[in-house]
Design goal:
The structure holds two protein chains of two kinds. By secondary structure, chain A is mainly alpha-helical. Chain A has one domain: Amino acid/polyamine transporter I (Up-down Bundle), CATH 1.20.1740.10. Chain A contains 18 helices and no strands. The longest helix of chain A is centred in the last third of the chain and has 45 residues. Chain A is globular and about 60 Å long. The longest helix of chain B is centred in the middle third of the chain and has 34 residues. Classes of the chains: A mainly alpha, B mainly alpha.
């Protein structure tokens, strides 16, 4: 008997927790800033309506109808399409290997924040040396002898044990229970931090940078590609997660409104993170006289700027340390709820096809995942290889499979039938606009995203030195080939369960 | 803050935060209705 979500609240918290992750906290604010501030918001909102919401409804409805993960979903369309399902569920496993390394930094900073609170080390006002000690340095992506970060390695063990303990308990026993507590807690903590950040002197400078429209850039196709990419990736679509979550829905559960809630909740978190990050940066710009660009464009914002901001909230080191602990706990929770959903995506697909206990399967995946994450604990891995793998898997494979998924489900299964099934027990119904978006508009725009990203990757190779080119081929295309190879192995193996009959 | 920034802030935050609130209220109303039945 297949498990189902015990409550609608549990399902929505789990789905929102899966969509809300570290990517919201640092990726959205700088995508907006880089792409014209307020002008980015218009394509972003268009992307929400034309891509994220229709795809979310499609994945929930199709997952519930098929009662299976991505592998079963694709093989139900046509046996040979099963291979796409396997490639799709390989994505979260690859992403989890480096995602765990990023989450690990939060774990390390949580521990150091407690050290700060108890007067053992004073680092929040000057996090550079601690970040340098944790991340280390390497000369280039091939400098594999540069060393390994023992801090990240130990924290990665902790992160994988947490993932393993939660996911092996199953949907209602593990993920639903943990999401019921963690997702609302995360939202409350982030709202408190955001309100506090807006109250800081100079926050208006940051908010002006985030929201000030630059309409000279709005006709730039790059902005539209970035907006679609941000919405697509931050909602965890096309990686098998939402199909798997939908498969555990009760047959009479609402689909349409739940999809709207998940997408809007994720985007709300994007904007909460945007306001929080930019208000804090505005405060730092105002008080220290530094430029916005001096904080970098990635994880640096969270791991360098925030400890400084926290240290200036109070002169009491105990308060500083405890605030730091809460903030990095918040980051850890955001990462953990996303990573357990990624692990569940593969677990659901494999359990659909192979007769194996959930506990044994999750243990095997966790061991392989930990070995993969350990590679990113190396200095070269954390500082260079992580970005390369993320660019190839995130930009090409996810969008490419999203494109394949929307075309196959829309044209083979049919949007009309799926719409009727989605509408049947939903709080409100979607009309024919949904069919039109899925059949024509979304494939066209996703196709443009994929083509633009492939062109960018190839033209980028021409501007690199030989070490850069080798690294891109080995770690970028190499990862893609390993994913496809592993997918073929799983695809070729026989079904040992009866669910596909 | 400039007027343009304030307008974009209201549109952006209003759409997603307003959208979240509205859809949650719809879900709560639907749940209440089904309990009454």
């Amino acid at each position: 008997m297949r498990e189902v979500w015990q409550s609608r609240k549990g399902f929505i918290f789990a789905a929102a927790g899966a969509a809300i992750g570290l990517g919201n906290l640092w990726r959205f604010p700088f995508q907006a800033y880089k792409n014209g501030g307020g002008a980015f918001l218009l394509p972003y909102l268009v992307a929400l309506i034309t891509c994220a919401i229709p795809l979310m409804i499609m994945e929930y409805a199709y997952g519930r109808q098929i009662r299976g993960g991505a592998v079963k979903a694709f093989s139900s369309l046509k046996k040979k399409f099963e291979i796409f399902g396997w490639v799709q569920v390989m994505i979260p496993i690859v992403v989890m290997t480096y995602y765990s390394a990023i989450i690990s930094v939060s774990v390390v900073f949580m521990v150091y924040s407690l050290g700060h609170a108890f007067g053992m080390i004073n680092w929040l006002s000057n996090p550079g040396p601690i970040m340098g000690m944790v991340a280390g340095s390497a000369e280039n992506p091939l400098d594999l002898g540069a060393g390994i970060s023992i801090y990240i390695l130990i924290a990665v063990v902790f992160v994988w044990i947490a993932n393993w303990l939660i996911v092996k308990k199953g949907i209602s026993g593990g993920i639903e229970k943990i999401s019921n507590v963690f997702t609302p807690l995360l939202v409350v903590m982030m709202v408190i931090f955001m309100i506090n950040a807006v109250r800081l002197n100079g926050s208006a400078i940051g908010l002006e940078a985030l929201f000030k429209p630059d309409f000279s850039k709005i006709m730039d196709p790059g902005i539209w590609v970035s907006a679609y990419a941000q919405v697509f990736f931050s909602t965890t679509l096309a990686v098998g997660v939402m199909i798997a979550y939908g498969s555990y829905l009760h047959s009479k559960a609402d689909v349409v409104n739940s999809a709207f809630i998940t997408v809007f909740a994720n985007s709300s978190f994007d904007l909460i993170a945007g306001v929080l990050v930019f208000s804090t940066l505005g405060y730092l710009v105002s008080s220290m006289g530094v430029e916005f660009t001096s904080f970098g464009t990635g994880a640096g914002v969270a791991f360098i700027a925030f400890p400084i901001a926290i240290s200036t909230l109070s002169s009491n080191v105990v308060v500083q340390g405890l605030l730091g602990f809460v903030f990095f706990l918040c980051l850890f929770i955001a990462g953990l709820t996303s990573s357990i959903s990624m692990l569940e995506s593969f677990a659901t697909a494999a359990l659909d096809k192979f007769k194996i206990s959930r506990e044994k399967l999750v243990t095997i995946i966790s061991l392989f995942g930990f070995v993969g994450s350990a590679c990113f604990a190396s200095y070269a891995g954390f500082n260079y290889i992580l970005d390369i793998v993320d660019a190839y898997v995130g930009n090409i494979v996810i969008a490419g499979l999203g494109l394949i998924e929307v075309i196959l489900i829309s044209y083979i299964y049919g949007t009309k039938e799926l719409r009727q099934q989605a509408n049947e027990y939903s709080d409100f119904k979607v009309g024919q606009w949904w069919d039109i978006l899925l059949k024509y508009f979304t494939p066209l725009l996703l196709g443009a995203v994929v083509v633009t990203n492939i062109i960018n990757l190839f033209t980028g190779l021409l501007r690199m030195d030989i070490i850069g080119v080798i690294a891109q081929i080995v770690f970028g295309w190499g990862t893609v080939l390993i994913m496809i190879g592993a997918s073929i192995v799983f695809y070729k193996r026989k079904w040992t369960t009866s669910v596909n009959e | 803050m400039s007027t343009g920034a304030i307008i974009m802030m209201v549109i952006g935050l209003g759409t997603v935060w307003g959208g979240t609130l509205t859809t949650i209220l719809i879900a709560l109303a639907a749940e209440k209705k089904s309990k009454i039945r």
